[in-house]
Specification:
With 499 residues, the chain is of the alpha/beta class. It is built from 16 helices and 18 strands. The strands form 6 sheets. A 7-stranded parallel β-sheet has the order 13-12-6-3-2-17-16. Helix 1 runs parallel beside helix 12 (372-382). The longest helix is centred in the middle third of the chain and has 20 residues, at 267-286.
């Protein structure tokens, strides 16, 4: 069996010529390990088949015992659940599906009592069309009249149907403009039709969202992850996007356009800077850092723009997905290139945050050979900076299998496969719920791949993960300088033997 050299060469790869200076104090977020909890799928505490806040509370000792310092709680805002919490109706209320504000209060306090930090998922680009903000905007009620991106039709076709104002497309394909008969205008929605985009060119929107951030920071959260920041602003002149090639002109496929007027507009960085100023105001009061971490799938040279510079700091770190290019054919030279492509453009105030799995993409053991996942998380955990770990990654969880009828019944797209219930033990529904059917089916391998079984095996992925997390907390990893050196591309070992 041919195994990537990174499996056995990891320690010299990361530690070659280390100079350790443990006297250099780092802020808490610079070396933290984040545990990403998709609330709906982590642990059901009340037997309704859906994960909830009290389920997370029940498993805090597990999260702490692994060695995580930060818990990132996803999507608990009030929502009609068309997109399972990423379509918000009220930014200041917990959806009853997940519990109550008292449940959240208890959870946040317990996380802090265990010496960990806690982040929330901030979804700023859009709300649900069931939000009171949107309903009032439809009726042109102040101050919500221009809270969303409204535009008159370009004209009407031969059948007197309104024509969208420009050629912008939705990520689900087709026009991103949705006609509202009551207001007699189009509203813009880059994602689902029920997720109208907020108008951040309107200062009242920016002030309202700052109020949301203050609410949760005052509640006790230590920061937040920014969902889809590249889509927050659109070109205020509403110019047409160019097409990728003449052959795809008038296509309805999102990728047929170059989205220069629809996303990644420069104003995005200024908005994030405003939020950073808000966060720094809290630190001025108590000398405790609250953080902001945007999601980004950008190339390294564009991703590092989120840091700003030492005199104009923007975010604390972006989530970086470069390690998604790791695969079971990656050799040592490839690995070195992947790491250096980001580290070599890192600004002096930059903190890398490495991601292997997340809620919107297939899990690594399903993308490639499951055995490769251990080698991959060894790399992730021992690189400098932050490690963001998706629930179940520590046991090598695979994507769950969904039949077409299950997707329809649960009103989910292919991403549901990446969000299957956590596999706690080999009981019915993997110990996730006592209900006969969980909101999503558990992965079929749960009976042999679960937390309980792996804790009993000292050589399991979970116990390997725990040992690495312990090593990660050492001064050498926390403060050491790192260099890389490719000694050989591969190491060959007999199939089936673990090293």
């Amino acid at each position: 069996m041919r195994v990537p050299l990174l499996v056995v060469f990891l320690v010299p790869l990361v530690f070659d010529s280390i100079q350790c200076n443990a006297n250099t104090e780092k802020d808490w977020y610079e070396t933290t390990a984040l545990y990403q909890v998709y609330t709906r799928s982590f642990k059901d505490s009340n037997g309704d088949g859906i994960g909830d806040l009290n389920g997370i509370f029940e498993k805090l000792d597990y999260i702490k015992d692994i060695g995580f310092q930060t818990v990132w709680i996803q999507s608990f805002f009030k929502s009609p659940m068309v997109d399972f919490g990423f379509d918000v109706t009220d930014y200041k209320t917990v959806d009853p599906t997940y519990g109550s504000m008292d449940d959240l209060r208890r959870l946040v306090d317990a996380i802090h009592e265990k010496g960990m930090k806690v982040l929330f998922d901030f979804i700023p680009n859009h709300t649900s069309d069931e939000s009171e903000w949107f309903k009032k905007s439809v009726n042109k009620e102040d101050p919500y009249k221009d809270f969303y991106v409204w535009k008159d039709p370009k004209g009407y076709d031969a059948d007197n149907r309104p024509i969208p104002p420009n050629n912008w497309l939705s990520t689900i394909d087709g026009s991103a403009w949705r006609w509202n008969e009551r207001r007699r205008q189009f509203y813009y929605s880059i994602f689902l039709p029920g997720q109208p985009d907020l108008n951040y060119h309107n200062p009242k929107v920016r002030r309202s969202m700052e109020d949301v951030l203050r609410f949760w920071l005052d509640f006790g959260f230590d920061g937040f992850r920014v969902d889809a920041p590249g889509f927050i602003f659109e070109d205020d002149l509403m110019r047409d996007n160019p097409w990728v090639s003449p052959e795809v002109v008038n296509s309805t496929a999102f990728n047929s356009q170059i989205h220069i007027y629809q996303k990644d507009v420069e104003a995005e960085l200024q908005l994030l800077y405003e939020w950073r100023t808000l966060l720094d105001g809290y630190k001025e009061q108590d000398n405790v850092t609250r953080i902001m971490a945007p999601e980004t799938f950008k190339e390294p040279r564009n991703a590092v723009r989120y840091f700003g510079n030492s005199t104009h700091e923007i975010t604390h770190f972006p989530f970086y997905f470069g390690l998604f290019s790791l695969k079971d054919t990656t050799n040592a030279t490839d690995l070195e290139r992947i790491i250096h492509s980001y580290m070599d453009v890192m600004p002096p105030n930059g903190v890398p945050c490495w991601v292997l799995d997340t809620h919107d993409l297939p899990r690594l053991p399903s993308r490639y050979d499951p055995e490769f996942s251990e080698a991959a998380f060894m790399t992730q955990l021992l690189l400098p900076g932050v490690a963001s770990v998706y629930y179940g990654q520590e046991i090598g969880m695979k994507d769950t299998k969904l039949r077409p009828d299950q997707k329809r019944e649960m009103k989910i797209d292919n991403r549901g496969a990446f969000r299957g219930p956590m596999q706690w033990d080999n009981s019915i529904n993997a110990g996730f719920t006592t209900k006969k059917n969980a909101w999503l089916p558990v992965s079929s391998d749960f009976w042999r791949n679960n937390v309980k079984k792996q804790l009993e095996d000292p050589r399991s992925p979970l116990n390997t993960f725990k040992r690495l997390m312990n090593l990660r907390s050492s001064p050498v990893i926390q403060y050491g300088e790192w260099e890389t050196c490719v000694v050989s591309e591969w190491i060959h070992m007999p199939r089936g033997k673990r090293k």
